[in-house]
Design a protein that fits this description.
It is built from 5 helices and 7 strands, in the order βααβββααβαββ. By secondary structure, the chain is α+β, with helices and mostly antiparallel strands. The longest helix is centred in the middle third of the chain and has 13 residues.
């Protein structure tokens, strides 16, 4: 995850900012590509953006003073255990805007969607994501929202070190975790 809100004593004094959320469209996809290029250590291929067009209802762009400063992109998936899951593909906030509650607002938006009537009617039972094992800030950030580490995947990432990731899950809409939470160092 690029850009989170794990406050530390030296950064907790930064004033929170209010995001204006906007829809992702085919017309502003180029802005998202530039944001991702600036915030992630990997280059997302064109197929990633083509797939996003199929999940526009679970993607939002975050604007501050009419400038794109963050985004969250998720997709709806079938779960092996039955029902549906929302997968957080990306969450990003430009570095100058980090530690200002913007990532919190984006995650809260998707959690509100995931627990809304439409997702309940679709059988959405969890939300999950992958986090690089070395990214303690992201682990702490998502932990504040009730996400639990349920799995470690070795060699998940191809072009970044370390290549391992944790799978973080949060049950939704009365469901329970289908895998026990792991203790992480």
């Amino acid at each position: 995850m690029a850009g989170d809100d794990g406050a530390t004593p030296s950064t907790s004094r930064r004033k929170p900012l209010k995001l204006e959320l906007g829809n992702l469209t085919e017309k502003n996809m180029g802005q998202l590509k530039k944001l991702n290029l600036a915030t992630f250590p990997v280059l997302y291929k064109d197929q990633f953006y083509l797939d996003l067009v199929k999940s526009l209802q679970y993607c939002r762009l975050g604007f501050y003073a009419d400038v794109l400063v963050g985004s969250i992109c998720c997709r709806l998936e079938d779960r092996e255990a039955g029902g549906k899951a929302l997968y957080i593909m990306t969450l990003s906030v430009l570095e100058p805007y980090q530690q200002r509650s913007l990532a919190t607002q984006l995650v809260q938006w998707i959690l509100d969607q995931a627990q809304g009537k439409e997702c309940q009617d679709q059988g959405v039972q969890e939300i999950y994501l992958h986090v690089q094992t070395s990214n303690q800030r992201a682990l702490d950030f998502y932990g504040k929202f009730g996400f639990k580490v349920t799995e470690e995947i070795k060699d998940y990432y191809k072009k970044i070190e370390p290549p391992d990731c944790y799978v973080l899950r949060r049950p939704l809409n009365g469901a329970e975790l289908t895998q026990p939470a792991l203790k992480v160092p």
